[in-house]
Specification:
Radius of gyration of chain A: 43 Å
Domain Glycoside hydrolase family 31 N-terminal (chain B): 68-317
Organism (chain B): Setomelanomma holmii
Number of helices of chain A: 10
Enzyme class (chain B): hydrolase
Domain Glycosyl hydrolase family 31 C-terminal (chain B): 710-798
Structural class of chain A: alpha+beta
Largest interface: A-B, 48 and 73 residues
Pathway (chain B): Glycan metabolism; N-glycan metabolism
Number of helices of chain B: 16
Strand content of chain A: 5-15%
Oligomer: heterodimer
């Protein structure tokens, strides 16, 4: 499969004019990078780089017509730019598989003297746009199509770049330093946990011993008390027991009423918020959507809103405050009862004495029979055994034991938690241990967004109103990104990046529960760069943090060079 | 799902119910005579215009209602028939409810819809001899047409070459509801009457069900109808025509189904009443966003049509009657007649009749009347990327960067309503669009544009100068009491600009000046949505019919034109943003009417991300094309819902054939820009996009043709092959302009092939690999996901630009590839139109218009100038600016075997020095392989695109030493 020559001197002239005039190197055709120079040395013919069996006359190089199926004869024009899997298919010029139809060159080589050389895609050559981002010397627009003139701006751009690069390097160094500090901090925090574990372990040992001894002492006290009971009812009367029971019961109730009240208050706050939301919903919903569900909801809200609902009675509430206060006038003075020495239980048992005689006799005989039967059957306590009451000593011992057990349990669960925490993924060098619960914010559009490391993401409307949870931390993951790095270096660049996944945030109307992927890239400070709602209620935050600087430092630094 | 309950059926629309009932009664009665008669003595004929009085006999008391009749015979061969009502025209009627509305039947539809072609034909003449009771007018080219007017009952037959093509009032459905005062009938009075009288009374009442005469209530809105019943209706028959097309916009097939019984028929008439139909359904005669009351009937060898110029709510019944062949009458085939029944709520009866005989005649004559498609800027026919919404200026810039990053071309990015500050048009949200100028600059760098939405509803709120001015100047639409009408739309409480008012248009123009609408730039263009108008709390999601417009015309009279007045105003505003800036505006509209093509592009509104919607988009866009408004498209991907990656990919592969090509998505959907779906979808979509860009020169040429001849940009089979009866109903494949490119988009899930219908005996070649398909009938063409079924009809030359660029603006100076596709005789021809793609200088000659011919006998390819006018300075300037733009490649598909071994051609170009006149260019021959046709490539002939030149393939002078070369 050869190509024929129709060599003409006229065709050669523009080529010669366009070739590089660098002093020392033999001239390379326009657009050829130094690494490809060797392919363009033959003065007569050109061998297509990926298809060495195809040769074309040297005049065909850079004549703005694509001869090589791999485009290598046009390093300095856009003639072969259509060679791409993104272009519409075209009939193969040779037997299928026999030719390599992939572009052999990475692009048009811009020397960018005074800055960094770079390749620009062939599609951008002579299209009338000065692509200074890649080609600061403007050499991509040598034809001046449509009158475009791209002056060489490499001096300026290069200088600016070096300045920024320096700043970037500086910032990067600072970031690295901060990362070291963070690692130290994380290590310290880890050490703290480890120390705590150690402490806990010791504590648990001690506590276990304490529990054992308390158990023992309880048994002893009980035995002692039982002896007492056998000898006769002690001074600790039934009223005392009752009062202690009633006290604990009332305390329990008070506590619960208090809790219920605060729960009620928070529920009320939620209802208020919901009502406000529904009110807005009603005002702002779009009747044009004709969504039956929405319409029903609006009507239901209107009905609901129309009902006259009385708010909480403040007077009653004040009463409740009074009742709940332990210092209030009406509060029971428990001490007065707890110290009562006489037992009223016996009195209760002798209630027959208060009845008229005939009745008493009848009742007495019946009751006696019943009581005997009950006692015999173990249903009723034997009045002499007094086993239904516990002496204060036993109660105290038992409560001591209980609290010791509780402490032990607490310590054990804390230990487990800390041990689990040690196993938990805190990222490379456990660095996120140092950042956990540290929050950063950024204004974007109508909202302020907040990211609390390893905790949650939140959206706060600037106009006021409730905050919206955008997800709670789930795990650390990673993601491949490929983005241009802005000049200030505040961007993801390209490569693999650590990402934090936050899920199960507030539910979205007509959508899923909100979730956020926080993608991290190296920066001197912890800061949110950008928030994007990638799809409905699925957010992506780009966050800078020194925490990830060590991880992939090479890639991040090289992010500037696109090609 | 569409909410049927929000929109009227014929039965719920008083005049439609009355007229359908009337038609049924007339059809049921054997003795019925249409009560309309021309007064013979009143007939005058002068300068192509016939005037007369038609009297309508009204039963009671022999009263006769005079209806002035005008029949104008136009130079183009079109006839206009207008019937008015004298009493209303003279204002001799009384309106109820102290209405301020005008008393006349609305007579200004033509003022908005018509722009030309109204010159009466000097040659039209009354026939010398006519049967008694008839008046005959001979007109048309060479007197080939005649209109035969029967006096009593009044009817008209339109004949071509002695054969009746169109008939008015054949079935006696003509009905002009004359004005009458409302008689308050005492309800109980008849109790005492005699039995006989009662029966009579009943009979009388049967015909006069007054329940819909004086007011009508629908969906909680009551129409006060101050003029009472005032409908106009007429039956129009097309004898011998089986197919009727047109009357967009409906989600239905190209060949219209019948509406009153028969197989697979609709039960409702086609309705034209511009409305914001939420989640519209497929295969339905239901009304949609726009209305073009232009219908054409087609049979082998003939196309005729009617244009019903009326802007009020209109319903059209279609029935077909099959006449089976008489077995005794040898040689006579059975045929089908199509009969239609047109009903409008108010206004004049005003109909244009076209007698063809070709589809091209129809589109040309219709466009002559209503205007040609505006020549768009070249970016407007490239790819548009839209979404409700790109949420910030940074978001826009990010999408813009991503297209470049993925090497996907696009030209325009769009902003839906969320860019505004609280839905106040002409403002930017200060929090999300902080720096629109910077955003525009980034776009402009790659020749890209921004389209921002501006709707006709103006937020009724404080601290908003636009509403303050609107109110102060009194430029809003008014309610029936004459106060400014207040309704509900996106911003909440709103008022609507009344663009029927010239003062409102002037004011509107002022709002778009760069210093007034801050943040816009020369590369900002406008999208007009919701201009039906959409009113969320109005009847049928639009305005009450008794609202009043400028001149006190009722909204009822002008409804279907309303949207057009608005986008026309926007067009004028964009054209005049800055003194001395003469660039072609771009406006997209959702509502439209006949004439909208002069100033806007349209899209088919809020479709769904479903295969059925993709499928329906093809006939819908084709129908727009033959109805004079070809700059049309559907939302690629489907507006509501999330398309599967396959559907999205197929939709792009189909969308590249929409003249207006835009991807769009609802705010609740996931992002779906072409770079989103990933491999292999993104690559396949990019190929499709690049195919559209590669063919932009062909598309631009097709737009030019549309803008000068009215021809559709994408064309249905019948339009290209009017003689091929088997292909009349084919509406799932299309031709691009005159290029011979035949595409059949895949619209079925999981398909890996399509069946393409070929109408003629020319060879058709696969666009990508030159596989040959020959012979009339259906051919199976492979269509796996990465293959677009696209054929090239033999006989055409297709201009392309093969270098992929980031936007169409960056292709301006790229060289051309010409693909010469030989027909069965080895010939081919084609054309190319080219201008600056931006300004109006083409109107002063700044364009290149070439015709390319390949002559099989002489084996030469030539480029000739199609511009016959003498070149102006603008022409020269433009041609000079394109001087360096050349043809870089010529591909000949279906090349003759004899060329094997040929290795060069001889190229000659005008203006070259004698010594350099004869140049050689390399030719590369590729032999046929299996079904794949032989093709040759001419390497870099270096001929100017704006020059005259000749490429000689028959030269035998040199290069013979290469004979027997292996390929």
């Amino acid at each position: 499969m050869g190509r024929k020559h129709t060599a003409s001197i006229a065709l050669l002239l523009p080529l010669l004019a366009s070739t590089s005039n660098a002093a020392s190197d033999p001239p390379r055709p326009r657009g050829v990078g130094p690494e490809f120079a060797k392919f363009y040395k033959n003065p007569d013919t050109f061998m297509c780089i990926s298809n060495p069996n195809i040769t074309v006359p040297i005049a065909n190089v850079n004549d703005d017509y694509c001869d090589c199926p791999d485009g290598s004869d046009e390093p300095g024009t856009a003639a072969c730019s259509y060679i791409s899997p993104l272009s519409p298919p075209r009939p193969s010029s040779g037997k299928p598989g026999a030719v390599n139809e992939t572009l052999a060159l990475p692009g048009f080589y811009c020397k960018n003297k005074g800055h960094i050389p770079s390749y620009i895609p062939f599609t951008n050559v002579n299209d009338g746009v000065c692509d200074y981002e890649l080609c600061c010397d403007g050499s991509d627009e040598y034809e001046g199509v449509g009158g475009v003139k791209c002056e060489d701006q490499c001096a300026k751009i290069g200088k600016e770049w070096r300045k920024q690069d320096e700043a970037r390097q500086k910032s990067l160094n600072a970031a690295r330093q901060r990362r070291k500090d963070l690692i130290a901090e994380a290590a310290r925090l880890r050490k703290e946990v480890e120390d705590r574990i150690q402490t806990l372990k010791t504590q648990i040992q001690g506590q276990t011993l304490k529990v054992e001894s308390l158990e023992k002492s309880l048994v002893e006290i009980e035995r002692a008390e039982r002896g007492k009971v056998v000898k006769g009812a002690g001074k600790g009367g039934k009223i005392t027991v009752l009062s202690s029971l009633a006290k604990s019961r009332i305390e329990e109730l008070t506590e619960n009423v208090g809790r219920l009240r605060s729960e009620r208050d928070s529920v009320k706050a939620r209802v208020d918020e919901l009502e406000a939301m529904l009110k807005r919903f009603k005002e702002e919903y779009n009747p044009n959507f004709n969504d039956e569900g929405v319409k029903r909801a609006v009507h239901a809200w209107e009905d609901y809103a129309a009902q006259d609902r009385s708010g909480p009675n403040e007077a009653l509430d004040r009463d409740l405050d009074e009742i709940l206060s332990p210092d209030s006038e009406s509060a029971i003075k428990w001490e007065e009862f707890e110290t009562t020495e006489e037992s009223d239980v016996e009195v209760l048992y002798k209630f027959e004495e208060y009845l008229p005689t005939p009745v008493r006799d009848w009742v007495d005989s019946k009751l006696r029979d019943l009581r005997v039967a009950l006692i015999e059957n173990g249903i009723l306590a034997d009045p002499t055994s007094d086993s239904t009451t516990e002496s204060k000593a036993v109660t105290d011992a038992r409560s001591q034991l209980d609290s010791a057990k509780r402490e032990l349990d607490n310590d054990k669960s804390e230990l487990t938690r800390h041990q689990e925490d040690l196993d938990k993924d805190y990222g490379p060098d456990s660095i996120f241990r140092a950042l956990k619960d540290i929050c950063v914010e950024k204004d974007s559009g109508e909202y302020t967004y907040e990211h609390c490391f390893l905790s949650r993401t939140t959206q706060k409307p600037k106009k006021g109103g409730g905050h919206t949870g955008m997800g709670n931390f789930v795990h650390i993951t990673s993601i491949t990104v490929d983005e241009e790095l802005p000049a200030d270096g505040k961007g993801l660049g390209s490569g693999e990046r650590i990402a934090l996944k936050y899920e199960n945030g507030q539910h979205c109307w007509n959508g899923p529960n909100r979730s956020t992927l926080v993608v991290l890239a190296c920066a001197e400070k912890d800061e949110i760069w950008k928030i994007v709602e990638e799809e409905k209620c699925v957010y992506r935050m780009e966050v800078g943090t020194p925490a990830v600087c060590g991880v992939d430092v090479q890639k991040v630094v090289e992010g500037h060079d696109e090609l | 799902m569409v909410k049927h309950e929000n929109f009227k059926t014929c039965d719920q629309s008083g005049f439609c119910k009355r007229n359908r009932q009337f038609a049924d009664d007339v059809s049921a009665s054997s003795s019925y005579t249409s009560p309309y008669a021309v007064v013979p003595a009143s007939i005058t004929f002068k300068k192509g215009q016939l005037d007369a009085v038609v009297l309508k006999a009204v039963k009671e008391g022999g009263e006769k209602v005079p209806l002035p009749l005008t029949i104008t015979f136009l130079e183009s061969g079109v006839v206009r028939v207008t019937l008015d009502e004298e009493k209303r025209a003279k204002g001799q009627i009384e309106l109820r409810h102290d209405s301020k509305a005008r008393k006349e039947r609305y007579n200004e539809a033509g003022k908005w819809a018509l722009v030309g072609g109204l010159n009466p034909a000097e040659g039209a003449a009354l026939a010398e001899t006519t049967d008694a009771g008839y008046t005959k007018v001979i007109y048309g080219k060479g007197g080939s047409h005649q209109a035969i007017i029967r006096h009593a009952p009044f009817s008209i037959d339109f004949q071509r070459e002695g054969e009746t093509q169109v008939k008015f009032n054949e079935r006696g459905f003509l009905n002009v509801e004359h004005w009458r005062p409302k008689v308050e009938k005492p309800v109980e009075e008849k109790k005492e009457g005699e039995e006989e009288a009662k029966v009579e009374e009943k009979e009388e009442e049967k015909g006069k069900d007054e329940s819909t005469w004086w007011d009508e209530t629908f969906g909680g809105n009551t129409d006060s109808k101050p003029r009472g019943p005032e409908a106009v209706a007429l039956d129009i028959s097309f004898p011998g025509y089986e197919h009727v097309f047109g009357i967009p916009e409906h989600a239905t097939r190209l060949s219209l189904k019948t509406t009153r019984g028969g197989d697979n028929a609709y039960s409702e008439p086609y309705r034209l009443y511009n409305a914001d139909v939420f989640e519209y359904e497929m295969d339905s005669p239901m009304t949609l966003y726009g209305a073009i009351p232009f219908m054409q009937a087609h049979r082998k060898g003939s196309t005729v049509g009617v244009f019903w110029l009326n802007a009020a709510e209109t319903w059209i019944d279609v029935v077909k009657t099959k006449n089976t062949a008489n077995p005794l009458a040898l040689g006579l085939k059975g045929h089908t007649d199509t009969q239609t029944h047109w009903m409008s709520e108010s206004g004049l009866l005003d109909v244009f009749v076209f007698l063809g005989p070709t589809p091209q005649d129809l589109t040309r004559q219709y466009s002559e009347l209503t205007g040609y498609t505006a020549m768009p800027q070249s970016f407007a026919i490239a790819y548009h990327q839209c979404r409700w919404n790109y949420v910030t200026d940074e978001d826009v810039k990010d999408v813009d960067r991503r297209f470049d990053k993925f090497n996907i071309p696009y030209d325009v990015i769009w902003l839906d309503i969320e860019y505004t500050h609280e839905k106040k048009y002409f403002t930017w949200d200060p929090l999300t669009f902080v720096n629109p100028d910077k955003m525009q600059k980034q776009l402009a760098k790659r020749e890209r544009k921004l389209v921002a939405i501006i709707d006709p509803h103006i937020k009724n709120t404080d601290n908003y100068p636009v509403i303050d001015e609107l109110k102060k100047k009194g430029l809003a639409v008014k309610n029936k009491d004459g106060d400014q009408y207040e309704g509900w739309c996106w911003p909440g409480s709103s008022m609507w600009i009344d663009c029927f008012n010239p003062a409102a248009i002037d004011w509107w123009k002022g709002l778009f000046k760069y210093d007034k609408f801050k943040g816009t730039a020369p590369n900002t263009f406008i999208w007009n949505d919701m201009n039906e108008p959409s009113v969320f709390n109005g009847p049928e999601t639009t305005m009450p019919k008794d609202n009043l417009h400028h001149g006190n015309w009722e909204h009822r009279d002008v409804h279907n034109i309303n949207g057009m007045t608005f986008h026309n105003a926007t067009y004028q505003a964009i054209a005049e943003r800055k003194k001395g800036e003469f660039r072609r505006p771009f406006v997209l509209t959702r509502a439209f009417y006949s004439g909208s093509q002069r100033s806007a592009a349209m899209w088919t509104g809020d479709n769904l991300a479903e295969w059925a919607h993709l499928e329906a988009s093809i006939p819908m866009v084709l129908n727009q094309g033959i109805s004079g408004f070809p700059f049309a498209g559907a939302d690629v991907g489907g507006f509501f819902g999330n398309p599967s990656k396959e559907l999205l990919t197929r939709w792009y592969q189909a969308g590249i054939y929409y003249p207006f090509f835009r991807g769009h998505a609802h705010i609740d959907t996931r992002r779906r820009e072409p770079y989103i779906p990933g491999s292999p979808y993104t690559e396949i979509i990019t190929q499709a996009l690049r195919l559209r860009y590669q063919l932009l020169p062909a598309w631009y040429t097709a737009f030019h043709e549309a803008s000068t001849t009215g021809a559709p940009i994408i064309r249905p089979n019948f339009y290209i092959h009017p003689e091929d009866e088997n292909g009349f109903a084919v509406d799932d494949q299309l031709y691009i302009g005159s290029t011979g490119l035949l595409a059949k988009p895949v619209t079925k899930e999981g398909a890996d092939s399509v069946s393409i219908y070929i109408a003629d005996s020319h060879p058709y070649y696969d666009y990508f690999d030159y596989t040959t398909y020959s012979g009339a009938g259906h051919h199976t063409v492979p269509a796996p996901l990465d293959k677009i079924p696209l054929l090239m009809q033999g006989g055409h030359i297709v201009p392309r630009r093969d270098r992929p660029r980031r936007s169409s603006g960056l292709m301006k100076y790229d060289p051309f590839t010409l693909v010469v596709v030989l027909d069965k005789d080895g010939n081919a021809s084609g054309s190319l139109y080219l201008d600056d793609g931006e300004t109006f200088e083409y109107q002063q000659g700044a364009f290149i218009h070439r015709r390319f011919d390949f002559d099989a006998k002489r084996e030469i390819l030539t480029s000739a100038n199609l511009d016959t006018s003498s070149p102006s300075s603008k022409t020269q300037k433009y041609v000079k600016s394109m001087e360096k733009v050349r043809v870089e490649k010529i591909i000949i598909v279906g090349a003759p075997k004899e060329w094997k071994g040929k290795d060069h051609v001889v190229v000659m170009e005008e203006g070259r020095k004698e010594s350099k006149r004869r140049q050689e260019a390399t030719l590369e021959y590729h032999g046929a392989e299996g079904k794949k046709a032989a093709w040759v490539v001419v390497r870099n002939p270096k001929v100017g695109i704006g020059k005259g030149w000749r490429v000689d393939f028959g030269d035998k002078g040199v290069g013979h030493e290469h004979h027997g070369h292996e390929h």
